[in-house]
TrEMBL record:
GO terms for cellular component: cytosol. InterPro entries: Galactokinase (IPR000705), Galactokinase_CS (IPR019741), GalKase_N (IPR019539), GHMP_kinase_C_dom (IPR013750), GHMP_kinase_C_sf (IPR036554), GHMP_kinase_N_dom (IPR006204), GHMP_knse_ATP-bd_CS (IPR006203), Mevalonate/galactokinase (IPR006206). SUPFAM superfamilies: GHMP Kinase, C-terminal domain, Ribosomal protein S5 domain 2-like. Residues 275-347 form the GHMP kinase C-terminal domain. Keywords: ATP-binding, Carbohydrate metabolism, Cytoplasm, Galactose metabolism, Kinase, Magnesium, Metal-binding, Nucleotide-binding, Transferase. Its EC number is 2.7.1.6. Belongs to the GHMP kinase family. GalK subfamily. It comes from Jatrophihabitans endophyticus. Residues 80-165 form the GHMP kinase N-terminal domain. GO terms for molecular function: ATP binding; galactokinase activity; metal ion binding. This is Galactokinase. It is an enzyme of class 2 (transferase). Residues 9-43 form the Galactokinase N-terminal domain.
Length: 368
């Protein structure tokens, strides 16, 4: 990489959502943690009028003329780099020709926000390297615009918020309407617990339209109910009675009950009781995502059922769904047994072997 004397490196983590799935774009509540795995972006100056993006995971770099930065002009992994530059320039930030080199260890397609980690690493590195002076809240807007407006994936701000704002040893309670947030202590080691992540190796895909259809269902249900967002539904039974579309009823039931589960989880963590008590809430979240929101998959269901059968306190799919990862809250001493049970269940179902690792609540984006 040229110009090493001007090198700026930032690392942004992937995330796993403890609970609060598909609530972010409904103005609801989420509770993610940042992971030890992440993406590192190194920025150096270069001459000319083009952005150069490199990745250790790709054979060839991608060069993009700054004058041609627009949605649809760049495809694949480089779109997430170009989209951040495009969003920054669109806000009036002067981003000249630079070289951005990427390296990372977030499993791609596992639903652990590899794309948000990439975006946030690039955004924080550019913010530092170019002395843009942008606050983390602004960088969330920049990276979300990259995802939504440049790449074309209609996600909420959960992933970017977690990657930029999480702290070690805590989960992030985020109100997706007001932006209010606070760190909720989550010391799993002290409680003798572990949070296992089961990467099912089933590709996690959001660009195929299913995610957009869920968002459209929620928007239509909110319109029919006369509320700004489903977060505003206070009487679930009355709301369900007003809807004559069973699919919309199920979407509403998931969002309203999932918001309640997030707040109940935080209340249980705040009261100092056993962290294991949140386990049933995790399992109830999975059932709701599977049956009412219809975003689970065979692999995710096998992982959850096997973990619960092996003694997990609770388990659920995490992320957008349609593949990706599940989590299981287990006694630390049972981690190996639960992992083995999940692996046996996948083999018995004729599925490819999953990858299982322990999630440790980690710090958000930082200079390295």
């Amino acid at each position: 990489m040229s110009g090493d004397e001007h090198l700026t490196r930032w690392r942004a983590p992937g995330r796993v959502n403890v609970i609060g799935e598909h609530t972010d774009y409904n103005d609801g509540f989420v509770l993610p943690i940042a992971l030890p795995v992440g993406v590192t972006a190194a920025v150096t100056d270069r001459t000319g009028d083009a952005l150069l993006a490199r990745s250790t995971a790709e054979d060839e770099p991608v060069e993009i003329p700054l004058a041609k930065l627009e949605p649809g002009a760049v495809e694949g992994w480089a779109a997430y780099v170009a989209g951040v530059v495009w969003a920054l320039r669109g806000r009036g930030s002067d981003v000249p020709a630079v070289e951005i080199a990427l390296d990372g260890d977030v499993p791609y397609g596992a639903g652990l926000s590899s794309s948000a980690a990439l975006e946030c690493a690039v955004a924080t590195a550019l913010n530092d390297h170019l002395d843009l002076g942008l606050a983390r809240e602004t960088l969330i807007e920049v990276t979300r615009s990259c995802e939504n407006d440049f790449v074309g994936v209609p996600t909420g701000a959960l992933d970017q918020s977690a990657s930029l704002l999480c702290e070690a040893g805590a989960a992030l309670l985020l109100d997706c309407r007001s932006g209010e947030r606070r760190q909720v202590p989550l010391d799993l080691d002290a409680a003798g617990l572990a949070l296992l992540v089961v990467d099912t190796r089933a590709p996690h895909r959001l660009v195929d339209g299913e995610y957009a259809r869920r968002r459209a269902d929620c928007a239509e249900a909110a319109r029919r109910l006369g509320v700004t967002a489903l977060r505003d539904v206070t009487d679930l039974d009355a709301a369900l009675a007003r809807l004559d579309d069973d699919r919309l009823r199920r979407r509403v039931r998931h969002v309203v009950t999932e918001n309640a589960r997030v707040l109940d989880t935080v209340a249980r963590l705040d009261d100092g009781g056993p962290i294991a008590a949140i386990g049933p809430l995790l399992s109830a979240s999975h059932a709701s995502l599977r049956d009412d929101y219809e975003v689970s998959s065979r692999e995710l269901d096998v992982a959850v059922e096997a973990a619960l059968g092996a003694g997990a306190h609770g388990a659920r799919m995490t992320g957008g769904g349609f593949g990706g990862s599940a989590i299981a809250l287990v006694d630390a001493g049972d981690s190996d047994d639960v992992t083995a049970a999940v692996e046996r269940a996948f083999a018995a179902a004729g599925l490819a072997a999953p990858a299982v690792f322990t999630a440790v609540p980690s710090a958000g984006a930082r200079r390295v």
